[in-house]
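Input (structure):
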């Protein structure tokens, strides 16, 4: 499909709900002409016939009802890519999207919008993952990925192969494989299960690490029955701690259910901490 045949897309790039501002993205061959039709510059006069990359304007969009917006041209090639910064809130966003859809623009999700506007699919996926980053450390790594870190590593391996340097290529691939599981944890937490016999202090340890009383602590063995999870950042990485029921053989039916859940959670975990009471022999 050549550039003039492709559809023109619109997406809301900011989360739905209450906020002062919202941003709409427009991308495709008809984006600029449609904006020119609907937008009135505050200083008067028409927008130029062709978009100019890096320029922005203040004005209004609408008919009887209008919203004050800032429009920006992010890119002009291979097709115009624009942003409209409007007031926030579901209704203003809905009203603006409808105006553009009446002009033939097609609505897509913000994830698809990133995929359409990013020439490099790896960069698009990194930008989507960045929206889920929960710590400055993981956000920093994802920003680096979005700016092409993985692509550069793959290109370096390819160049080694083209030069016949198979050992260097193999080393590069080994490093990438090593980082694969780390990459998964940029958006998914490390799952750490705290397990052990009843009353050894599992819930107390989870509370100490969480910094608040997340779990019930009591002197009675068998206090924790269900799996209780807590998310926290350790050294800049997201960790989900799971407190579990104490493991013992002579448990009544309810406690036994908790023990089965504890085993299942431990089996799916990245790490299982088995806690022992240091004051009694194991
Ligand atoms: N002396 C001492 N007591 C502790 C320590 N950690 C926890 N306790 C006490 O040990 C008892 C049991 O603590 P919990 O944290 O509820 O133990 P648990 O392993 O979660 O117990 P269950 O949920 O019943 O399996 C409570 O009375 C705690 O105050 C510790 O490091 N030293
Ligand atoms: Mg407990």
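Output (sequence):
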């Amino acid at each position: 499909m050549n550039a003039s045949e492709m559809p023109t897309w619109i997406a809301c790039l900011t989360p739905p709900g209450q906020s002062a501002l919202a941003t709409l993205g427009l991308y495709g061959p008809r984006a600029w002409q449609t904006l020119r039709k609907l937008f009135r510059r505050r200083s008067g006069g028409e927008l130029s016939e062709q978009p100019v990359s890096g320029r922005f304007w203040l004005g209004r969009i609408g008919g009887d009802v209008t919203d004050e917006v800032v429009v920006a041209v992010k890119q002009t090639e291979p097709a115009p890519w624009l942003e409209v910064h409007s007031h926030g809130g579901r209704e203003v966003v809905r009203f603006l999207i409808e105006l553009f859809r009446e002009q033939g623009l097609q609505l897509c999700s913000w994830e698809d919008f990133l995929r359409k506007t990013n020439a490099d699919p790896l960069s698009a996926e990194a930008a989507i993952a960045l929206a889920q980053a929960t710590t400055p450390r993981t956000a920093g790594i994802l920003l680096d990925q979005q700016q092409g870190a993985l692509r550069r590593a793959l290109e370096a391996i390819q160049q080694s192969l083209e030069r016949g340097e198979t050992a260097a290529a193999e080393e590069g691939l080994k490093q990438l494989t090593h980082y694969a599981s780390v990459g998964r944890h940029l958006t998914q937490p490390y799952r750490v299960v705290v397990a052990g016999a009843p009353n050894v202090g599992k819930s107390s340890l989870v509370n100490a690490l969480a910094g608040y009383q997340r779990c019930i602590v009591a002197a009675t063995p068998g206090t924790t029955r269900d799996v209780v999870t807590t998310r926290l950042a350790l050294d800049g990485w997201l960790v989900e701690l799971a407190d579990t029921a104490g493991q013992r053989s002579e448990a009544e039916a309810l406690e036994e259910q908790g023990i089965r859940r504890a085993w299942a959670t431990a089996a799916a975990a990245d790490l299982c901490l088995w806690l022992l009471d240091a004051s009694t022999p194991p």
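Notes: The two ends are 70 Å apart (CA to CA). The chain has three domains: 3-117, 121-184, 190-275.
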